Amino acid sequence: MIDTSLSKSSQGDPQCFEGLEVGAVSVKWVRRSLEGHVISEVKRHEGYPKEKIQEIFHKYQTNEKSKITITGHATKNFLNLPYYAEAECLEKALLYFNLKPDILISLGGETFSVYPMKDGIIKNIIATTKCAAGTGEFIVQQLLRMGMTIEDGIKASKNGQYTQLATRCSVHCKSDATHRLNKGECTPEDIIKTLIHDLARKVSEMIDSAQWPKDLIILSGGVALNDVFLENLQYYLVDSEIKVLPESPFLEVFGASLYASELQEVAPARGEWFSKTTVEFVNQKSLINAESLLDYRVESDTQKKIVNNGQYILGVDAGSTTTKAVLFNALDDTVGASAYLRTLGNPILATKKCLKKLINSVGEKRIDIIQCGVTGSAREMVSVYLDNCRSFNEILAHARGAVEEVPDVDTVFEIGGQDSKFISFLKGVPIDYAMNEGCSAGTGSFLEESASVDMGIPVEKISDIAIKSTNPIAFGERCAAFINTDLRNALQQGAKQEDVVAGLVYSIAENYISRIVGPRQMGKTLLFLGGVALNKSVGLAIASRSQRNVIVPAHPELMGSVGTALMARDLLQEGITSERDFVLKDLIKGDMELKKLFRCKACENNCEIQNISIRGKVYPFGGLCSKYRLLRQKGIKIEEGQDLVELRNKLMIEEFGAQHVEESLGTIGLPMTLTSHSLFPLYVKFINELGYNVMLSKHSRLGNTKTLASICYPCELVHGAVLDLLNRGADYIFLPHVIELEIPKGFKHGYVCPSTGMIPDIIRAAFESDKDKIISPHIALSKDLIETTLKELRRVSVSLGLNPKIGVNAGKKAISHYREFSKKYQELGKRKIDELKKTPSVIIAGRPYVICPSEVNLALPRKIISRGYNVIPADMLPPLKDREVSERNVWHFTQQIENAVKYVKKYPNLNICLVSCFSCGPDAIIYHHFRQELAGNTFCYLEIDSQTAHAGFETRVGAFLDIIEERRRKKRKETLLAVMS
Ligand code: SF4
Ligand code: SF4
User: Fold this and answer.
1) What is the widest separation between alpha-carbon atoms in the chain?
2) Would you state the pLDDT for residue 437?
3) Residue nearest to atom 3 of ligand 2 (CA)
4) Topology classification of domain 433-552
5) Superfamily covering domain 295-406+558-587
């Protein structure tokens, strides 16, 4: 609210004092009179901080007579005016209001800081990392993605339900939210409610980590105005008084204005205020230099025409950011009409709107729509809506479209809003593919959001602005959150907007090439597809970075929907489907209704299956595997493959599981995480032999509320497991320091990673009050260290008040029980491999604690066996005799993966799914080596984190199996042709 008495009338009055700050996303200004009247302005600078400062000075007629003080480090880049640090200004403001909080929180656009305070003095600063995960700005970005204003979003969140999202990393969170929205698993209101809730939780965790009194907490920064956030924060900080002042949104500049009143001099002459800014970033070549490599064929809509009485196939690409639909002429292969709209988190509504647009294009003409296909991340839901039409994987749909466009295509780059894909071809057949792993730094949404939220540039203007740049900034190939921070820094340093935009465009190309293509083979000619390909500057950046010829077809954004229509036509031509009669006007009628819900009892996942009715027909929808999709679409039950992961779990947990001890000494809890999924027989036998019963932890997602620092997902799960065991009253928790597992023949070590080795200490720090309940002997199974292990187990019995011999005997029995299991498991493995290496099978290679527990593996084995493939866990494979071993591979589990890779190279019927976790140390070092080894094989790389949406995961697994099938089909055809000739 502007106090007009202080605006023009107070111009140049030295009795008015001003404070100013340039932040990551906004400029804040305040003017205060001696009498205490205040006016303020908080303006998003959108990449023009200097211009915004000038606007404010002009609007309020700030002149030489004003006394001004600046704060915020970046402000010094622009103004030669007296400067005070932000913390000093905050202290000054609180002193003015005579407030002495215990904690002051500053909630900025990009970072949060918690200031523990005593007697009005800041004693410490705890700040978030550079990563923008879950800051207020992140929420603003997500609201814009869903087409909501900040005010509307906050209001809407009140009607939402809390849902699970991977909120610890902004990039994963965004992809999680998008996939869940597209699958219809939640609403935009739910997403916003969850983001605000989790933001409050994070802030409360930061406050807790300060280990400081928190009776009175004061908030500063724009987020303080969000009442839903405040309610949530109060929920976590029940005993604290949380105070928001009218000046909270600009508290630091208010403090700066207080310092201004102490200045002896008025401001220097206005001409001297603005400093010459220096941009501390390296520049690179102009994008236009790569023009000779780019064949940009993009056409306008005017080329499309509907033929009266024509036969058409409807192709829909229901993507995360945009929805596209085409009417594809089945006879002359032309696109008769198309629609391209934003999905805005509601794929069904977006599809309906696209169909309405197609109806308008058809006008009075009469056409037959003989088939319909749908692809994209919301394909399953949309296929039900479109009368249960065929759904196709995005990779294959784009591949099909690409081959039609350029028959001898060898490489496709497809950059969409949220997902990016790479496909390589051999003689027109896709043989390899890759997708981004949750990271959005090589996707369109990253470019679009950075340009629009930080610089106010609409998507259609990005290309022209970027191409104008003569000195693009080199942001490099990095995490999206870090590039965002650098972008803001560059703008704060006064970089030209066009150089920043061109730098961003280069980053998209660099991230794509380094993260998605990686070590894979790029061909000679790249076909660049997806909505982002409409942006000519990105094509230039790709051409420049790859030094290949890049073709952008006439309608790169429609290639998924065209490919889908072509795939539907292929099925018709091959006699796999028959013609149907789709009527656009009927397809936009009616809403999907939820009918009876039931549980599938076919496996332990016990999925909820929703019957959905549309236009009088009912379809089963949902489930973690392909069972109901195949049933719905093909009307047949596929014969499932063998699930050896399940067999492994049964053998280990049921046959070699814990016994009930009568008259036990108590209960020892065993977290079912990390090495418990390998050494389970040893652990439970040892506990039983000590005279205790075993309590197994139940899966809990509450782990991340207890972690004190960022850690990998499996270690986060240990926190949840320990919390569960403590809550259920376990007397002790058995959580050993595992040093080394068995060393396979030929290797020198069999280490576990440092996080696994240190987990007991990490847990003790997180559960300070229960730390004495944690039993942590050092355990190593290599021959040299077995005696030491027994000594450690002896120490456990002593610590429990038992005779030392009991510990040693229990240890010996436990080790031999484990060896018995290992032997049996290896024998089973040998038998099964002999049986299965001749049938299509998939080895899942990763840590047993990620790939085996059904609560963690996102139903990966089920997803594969429901398509008819056998699934083999990597640790079941007997070591190959003739294999070479890599000296650098010192970890037990990656040695198993190395062995699995060798199997795949040796037996053509075996394929491999490499599974890793976000931020896993050993994998970061060694996985690129496996990727190189697997060059030429079709393999799948998956990362599992706390994200819960299965759609993206399903797309990757589905594409992997589709491509294997395509390759096999092609091979069979070639063999047949060879025989016939
Ligand atoms: S994973 Fe598949 S088979 Fe198992 S319960 Fe879910 S839908 Fe049924
Ligand atoms: S191996 Fe990787 S995923 Fe497993 S605990 Fe260590 S860092 Fe985490």
Assistant:
1) 99
2) 61
3) 920
4) Nucleotidyltransferase; domain 5 (3.30.420)
5) ATPase, nucleotide binding domain (3.30.420.40)
Cα–Cα distance for residue pair 27/23, rounded to 1 Å: 6
pLDDT digits (tens, 9 = 90+) for 46-98: 777 888 898 998 888 877 777 899 998 778 878 888 999 999 999 999 999 99
| Residue 656 contacts residue 817 (beta carbons within 8 Å) | yes
E strands present in 187-272: 216-220, 241-244
What does DSSP assign to residue 859? T
**Does residue 265 or residue 962 have the better pLDDT?**
962
**Alpha helical stretches, state H, 852-907:** 860-865, 892-906
Alpha carbon of 513 to ligand 1 centroid (Å): 37
Q: Give the span between the Cα atoms of 548 and 742, in whole angstroms.
A: 48
Report the chain's terminal Cα–Cα distance, integer Å: 85
849 CA distance to ligand 2 middle (Å): 10
Block residue for tokens 């497991």 = 721
Q: Where in the chain is the domain with CATH 3.30.420.40?
A: 1-97+245-277, 101-242, 295-406+558-587, 433-552
CB 761 within 8 A of CB 736: no
Phi-psi map region of 763: left, alpha, beta (phi>0 left; psi -120 to 50 alpha): alpha
Tell me the C-alpha distance between 848 and 821, whole Å: 15
**Predicted pLDDT at 3:** 45
**Residue for token digits 């805005």?**
344
DSSP run (H or E) holding 335:
strand 335-342
Write the single-letter amino acid at 449.
E
Q: What is the pLDDT of residue 951?
A: 62
Would you state the pLDDT for residue 148? 76
pLDDT at 948: 47
Residue 759 alpha carbon, nearest atom of ligand 2: 5
Residue closest by Cα to atom 6 of ligand 2: 753
Residue 568, pLDDT score: 94
- Ligand 1, CB within 6 Å, residue ranges: 600, 602-603, 605-607, 623-625, 627, 859, 862, 866
Residue bearing the bigger pLDDT, 458 or 813: 813
The DSSP H or E segment spanning 501 is helix 497-511
Q: What is the CATH number of domain 101-242?
A: 3.30.420.40
Q: Token pair of 47, please? A: 């990449």
Q: Return the pLDDT at 550.
A: 95
Please determine, for residue 394, whether its predicted confidence score (pLDDT) is greater than 60: yes
CATH 3.40.50.150 fits 837-980, yes or no: no
pLDDT of residue 14: 56
Burial of 365: CB neighbours in 10 Å, binned 0-12, 13-18, 19+: middle
**The CATH number of 656-825 is which of 2.30.110.10, 3.40.630.30, 3.40.50.720, 3.40.50.11890?**
3.40.50.11890
- The residue type found at 394 is E
918 alpha carbon, closest ligand: 2
Q: Calculate mean pLDDT across residues 920-933.
A: 80
Ligand nearest to the CA of 945: 2
DSSP state at residue 917: E
Is pLDDT above 80 for 928?
no
Closest of 888, 936, 878, 883 to residue 912, by C-alpha: 936
What architecture is domain 1-97+245-277? 2-Layer Sandwich (3.30)
Pocket of ligand 2 (CB under 6 A): 712, 714-715, 753, 755-756, 847, 917, 920-923
Mean pLDDT confidence for 795-821: 95
The Cα-based distances of 431 to 215, 289, 542, 870, 905 in angstroms read: 62, 33, 22, 21, 15
What tens digit of pLDDT does each residue of 30-56 get? 998 877 789 999 888 877 788 889 899
